[in-house]
Amino acid sequence: MGMLQVLGAYLVFLGLLSAQTTASLNGTIPKTYGIVLFRAFDSIDVLGPAELLYFIGQVHKTEIAWISETLDPVTTEPLMAVMNPFNSSVFQKIVPTHTFETAPDLDVLIIPGGAGIRSPYLNNTLKYIRETAPKVKHVITICTGSALAARAGIMNGKKATTNKTSWPNVIPFGPNTTWVPRARWVEDDSGEPPIWSSSGVTAGLDLMFHFVETFYSSENATWISKLTEYVRHTDPDDDPFARNDTIVAPTAG
Amino acid sequence: MGMLQVLGAYLVFLGLLSAQTTASLNGTIPKTYGIVLFRAFDSIDVLGPAELLYFIGQVHKTEIAWISETLDPVTTEPLMAVMNPFNSSVFQKIVPTHTFETAPDLDVLIIPGGAGIRSPYLNNTLKYIRETAPKVKHVITICTGSALAARAGIMNGKKATTNKTSWPNVIPFGPNTTWVPRARWVEDDSGEPPIWSSSGVTAGLDLMFHFVETFYSSENATWISKLTEYVRHTDPDDDPFARNDTIVAPTAG
């Protein structure tokens, strides 16, 4: 195809996009998202939600701030060699756009999980989460990001879920959290901001589709599911990876 | 948790991992993967397969080479402002590890899609794909990566699928390819190397799970689906986003 045909095809595509714009809830939609990056984050925990926001950005002015301790690229490689027993090199690095000091005011704070949530070197990350969460409109955690949020101290008295395989290792980070063992995702609206937590990795896509449906439009969610050919799980209680644990009651704070 | 507890928990996790190792098909498994990066690639096309390989790397020595024209970070941002009508900043940058000149010999070449496949500035990328494909054991394309592969000239006489929404805009890149409108993924074993192509974005996860099942073990695939809480689509013909197009017959080459 020549360049004119390419451009023409793309304008048709944009035409589809602008049709979606009118269906949105103007005025209430989030504009600025911040995603916290730290060593040994999980790729899809971060880039699953970002994929949906990529398309949302084509119908609404949207910003993602990629926030980390420094502007150095952040790797998915674990800190300890014991966590990479075959000395594989399967990791990638993402470039942050902001540090904790330069991050803009956010509408939505997204906290991913990954092996790195257990690191003893996250004091500044935890401080940023602790200080930022009360100022945003929504907190979203993906996978073991809810355990990182618990380490930061923002999950006391909240209900949440997390990765079901990592469950026994990470729920101790939140002794004052009600951990829900059967949930694709959990919405806790008991305080401000509401905290939405998803189960492991790809469950974050379902949470994020529901977030788009709630704060943009169901047309937007359907449109993005078609573009990404993602078969959504729309019922938060339909959890194929549910654990049999009884709900862990909050202990005294 | 203290550091010893964290390490203990992780060693349990590694114990689970080494149990998986024994079930693998030693000797036939791929070791070196190359993922081609170009401006305006799609995030999940790249990081979906990489997520599975991240876990495979914990049970087999595995390398991913992130290959691009230069070592500069590669952005998902489209080249043309018209493709970002709301001036959103929702893009991220990934750091390549190799250029086309320094890339290692590969067992598997992975070609992602994204808006950037239409770029007129991909001559070196197309040359790399064209020259590398005949030397690898497997070619995998995700989403519109099959159209990029067609642009590179490696899809003549092959059957393949691609993103169903982008279908009319991208299949013209492969006039001598049999495009399959109902397929979660397609395996073409008619020549060497075999070429596996997936439908849009998240269909690449299903292709990759099947690849893991085929060349590593079904235990590995099940283990990773649990860790990522991904509900697999295991039937390549079960395509919820299938088009009604009749199959486009190859035209004279």
TrEMBL record, chains A, B:
Protein name per UniProt: Class I glutamine amidotransferase-like protein
Species of provenance: Trematosphaeria pertusa
SUPFAM superfamilies reported for this sequence: Class I glutamine amidotransferase-like
Signal peptide residues on this chain, from the entry's feature table: 1-19
A GO MF term: transferase activity
Annotated keywords: Glutamine amidotransferase, Signal, Transferase
Pfam family, one: DJ-1_PfpI
Domain DJ-1/PfpI per the UniProt entry, residue ranges: 37-213
Gene3D superfamilies per the UniProt record, alphabetical: 3.40.50.880
InterPro entries recorded: Class_I_gatase-like, DJ-1/PfpI, INH-QAR
